[in-house]
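Today's session is about reading a structure prediction critically. Students often jump straight to the picture, but the first step is always the sequence itself: look for stretches that repeat, for charged clusters, for runs of hydrophobic residues. Only then move on to the predicted structure, which in these notes is written as discrete structure tokens rather than atom positions. Here is the chain we will use throughout the hour.
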Amino acid sequence: MPTRWKNVGILGGLGPLACAHFYARLVELTPAGNDGGHPEVMLLSSPDIPSRLAHLLEGGPSPVPALQRVARRLEDAGSELIAVPSITTQAFLDEIAAAVAVPVVDMMTAVVEQLHTAGVRRPALAVTDGTRRAGLLHRALTAAGLTPVYPGRDDQARVQECVTLVKAGRSRTARVRFRSLSSGSWAAAGDALVIGCTDLSPLLPALPPGSHDVGDLYARAVLAQAATS
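Below is the predicted structure for this chain, in token form.
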């Protein structure tokens, strides 16, 4: 148990439910015996940040100015480190970090290191269509010697449908569909199921044994960096 926590800022709205769920998991994973044992957390959910995938894949408006603005607001409010719980948004991590004087926790490094430490070598990845096309997580995993396994075309379409339902506020429907999907044969082709999108994280709160969620992996890394002695 640290003697003091650094104040944590969560750059939210990426999407809104994903970041709210990340905050809940941050609380649940904190080794605290009472309310006073938790770090101070500021979550700023800013839904006007332009689509990160639309910019990366289609040349849409850059999200960088909005991301930097939210990061500065968190810093100004007293955040001593900043979490960005979105795999896709890690593409802009350097630009976000350049806008503030406090550390911005690298999600991709945290995910890859913890999966490697857990002995995962063939992660069965549940990710969005855009994440697959952008290849950010894929490249990070393969660079570390891991071999990602993906759903086939039909199952991938169902994964994407679950994300679309979440963003449309239909998480209950998405939860039922994703629970069935995550136990499919494609997941068994890897040595561990990995929820590779924080929009999917709220849909499977009870992970099957041996499975991993990128949001949980990131939360642990954020807490490790927030702990002070």
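Discussion point for the tutorial: The chain has eleven helices and eight strands.
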